[in-house]
Amino acid sequence: MRVLVINGPNLNFLGIREKGIYGSLDYSDLLQLLEKRAEERKITLETFQSNCEGEIIDRIQKAYYDSVDGIIINPGAYTHYSYAIRDALASLAVPKIEVHISNVHGREEFRQASVTAPVCTGQIVGLGLQGYLLAVDAVVGIIEENRKES
Questions:
Q1: Quick one: 31 exposed, middle or buried, by C-beta within 10 A (0-12, 13-18, 19+)?
Q2: In this predicted model, what pLDDT tens digit does every residue of 124-138 receive, in sequence order?
Q3: With contact defined as beta carbons under 8 Å apart, do 121 and 142 qualify?
Q4: What's 3's DSSP letter?
Q5: pLDDT (average), residues 75-91
Q6: Distance CA 139, CA 97 (A)
C-alpha cells in the first residue's frame, strides 16, 4: 500500500513560525512521526513538501502514474484559494484526507473556507501533528475497506 503525504507552503517552517499555533516540533519531527507510523502500519509512505503551487499539482498528477493508493494533504494557504490544486485532487479516485495542524475553523475568517476539502474524503483539523497520524490510520482503513468491497 502506497500513501503520499503532501505539505504545502510554509510547512517546512514548522517549529520556526508561530509556535503558539503550530507548536515547537519541526518538519523533521513530523517526518519522523510519519515514518514511524508507516512502519507500524506496514505501508510505503512518501512525503513531499513544496512552497510552489505548480509543484504540488505536478506531484498530485504524478501520484496517478505512481499508482498511489491514498493521499494526505495539508495544502497550507492554498487550501483557501487554489482551484488548480482542487482540480488536481478531484482527478484522482483514491481516498484523500485534508489535514490542518491548527483549528482553521476557529481562526481568521479567510482560513475557515477550504476549496480543496469538498474533493477530499475527509478533513482533520486542530489536532496538531497528531492529525497526520490519524490521517494515516484513516486513509489506510478506507483503502483496506475499499479492497474488501472490490
A1: middle
A2: 999 999 999 999 999
A3: yes
A4: E
A5: 97
A6: 7
| Type of residue numbered 26 | D
Nearest-Å Rg of the Cα atoms of the chain is 14
Given 27, 83, 100, 105, the catalytic residue: 100
Cβ burial of 56 (10 Å; 0-12, 13-18, 19+) is: buried
Does 80 participate in catalysis according to the annotation?
no
Residue 27 falls in the annotated catalytic set? no
pTM recorded for the entire structure:
0.94
C-alpha to C-alpha distance for 23 and 19, rounded to whole angstroms: 4
Catalytic residue among 22, 27, 64, 83: 22
